[in-house]
Amino acid sequence: MNKKKKDHLLQYILHKADKCDDLIVRDLSILKSSYHLLYIEELSDTEMIEHRIIRPLLEARFSETSLSIRYIKDSILPVGEISLTGSADEALNKLFSGNTLLLKDNEDDILIVEAVKIAERAVTDPATETVVRGARDAFTESIKTNISLVRKRIKNNNLKVENVILGQRSNTSLSIMYIDDIVLPDLLVEIKKRLDTIEIDGILESGYIEQLIEENTFSPFPQILYTERPDKVAASLLEGRVAIFTDGTPLVLIAPAVFNEFFISSEDYYERVLYGSFLRFFRFLASIIGLVTPAFYIAFSSYHPEMLPTELVLTISGGRVNVPFPPIVEIIAMEFTVEIIREASIRLPGQIGPTLSIVGALVLGDAAVSANLVSPSLIIVIALTTIGNIAIPNYSAGASLRLLRFLLTFITAILGLYGLVIGLIFILIHLTSLKSFGIPYFAPYGPFRVKDVKDTLIRLPMKSINTRPRYLRPLDKIRQAKRRRKW
User: Fold this and answer.
1) pTM for this one?
2) Between 41 and 163, the higher pLDDT residue
3) Which residue, 52, 137, 160, 244, has most beta carbons within 10 Å?
4) CA angle 164-165-169, nearest 5°?
5) Chain centroid to CA 292
6) What is the DSSP string of 426-439?
7) Contact 237, 371 (CB under 8 A)
């Protein structure tokens, strides 16, 4: 195509853009030469096109200098991002990404001007990862805005950003961000390699990328962390991780991820060490309660009542006297009810959803107990389970534990407490066998690293966390050096 004349390039582009009524073609005659301006009306900034492209071109018609495409690029247009190409296909992709094309008859170059109309929402508070102490900004759907939010926190020339286009039809922009003198080169190569293997027609959300590059697709545990908080991305980059930005989504992927990271909130580092460790410990405890409480209820009420105090056994048995169903049926029925209420509350408008979830749970729970369909003790078990699951900061990790909770409940209903122990052992074996981009998923517990445990279940004071996680094998292992500053 690059050997064809300009009018042939124009006809080729118009042919490929046939039946696109939103394509605007503006013909200009300057110094007895014909120019053609092409842009998509909904994607391009028409005001910028008029003032930064058309007006300078019309003013240049009084010049005696011949206005070649290269001369226009170098000397006429007051635009920051501008480039040349001789490929009509490349120009066509840029056109439908919101860029403006300028062609001249009998010339082989096509001028690409970035005059994209940016329609985006303002930076607002995080919707899911809320904190009491910490930054209040969250990522938006604009990849440029998201990158700027991280660069605002890490003002360093070693913070690198590499761009790539994925999706044969969607042409979605992705950016890989990392700190060059910290990240392990092999990790960076592996991430780029997996991104290069993606052959798909469209990337509509970062979840597509997450599923296409993770190692174990059928594992219940997420192997890539996502977040809507710029400060969390900045902290991960400083540890030696890589961030993947996807245009059109407010969630940024962080790789590699380890099991411990899904239960840590940014607020843990902003509070003083005792309170931050207290919050983190009870968050881990809440996740364990949300995972095993229903299974324990079935094991002790159906198989091993002798392991409980006599008064507690009598209380549970008294509440189940008129209940016609075994504990497994009660739990499954209530668990499904809670999941339906949870899903319904998410889909409803923001003001109605929380009200429905609270009122629905109270009304259904009270009605079920009054109708002798479930026992009062089971309502307490389901409430503890639900609250414990909500305490997990990451939604994907919470969803994973909900799936495993059903699995442990069924195994315990068949084998009793032995089944629960067997199920937990298999989960532990699976965790230790997983890897995220070559990094052990259960690090630093398996393999066990003493120096990395200081920032896991609880965290030590900030003065003690002076090295980056060793399991990430960062180039620069020291994150906090003792030195005296001259004021």
Assistant:
1) 0.88
2) 163
3) 244
4) 170
5) 28
6) HHHHHHHH-EETTE
7) no
Per DSSP, the three-state class of 226 is: strand
On the CB side of 373, how many CA atoms lie within 13 Å of its CA?
11
The length of the chain is 487
Strand, helix or coil at 109? coil
Residue 312: pLDDT band with limits 50, 70, 90? confident
Q: Using one digit for the tens of pLDDT, what is the confidence trace for 451-473?
A: 888 888 888 998 888 889 999 99
Residue 473 to residue 454: CA distance in whole angstroms: 17
* Whole-angstrom distance, CA of residue 434 vs CA of residue 443: 10
Parallel, antiparallel or unpaired: strands 23-30 and 82-85? unpaired
Q: Is 58 in contact with 28 (CB distance < 8 Å)?
A: yes
- Name residues whose C-beta falls within 8 Å of residue 51's C-beta, 6 or more positions apart in sequence: none
Supply the DSSP symbol for 341.
H
With contact defined as beta carbons under 8 Å apart, do 117 and 22 qualify? Answer: no
Where does residue 220 rank: exposed (0-12), middle (13-18), buried (19+ CB within 10 A)?
middle
Structure tokens at 334: 């209530």
So what's the pLDDT on residue 321? 82
Tokens of 321: 């006297």
CA distance 229 to 129: 7
Write the DSSP assignment of 264-293 as a string of letters. Answer: --THHHHS-HHHHHHHHHHHHHHHHHHHHH
Beta strands, E only, 32-150: 33-40, 82-85, 100-104, 110-113
What is the separation, in whole angstroms, between the first and last Cα of the chain? 63
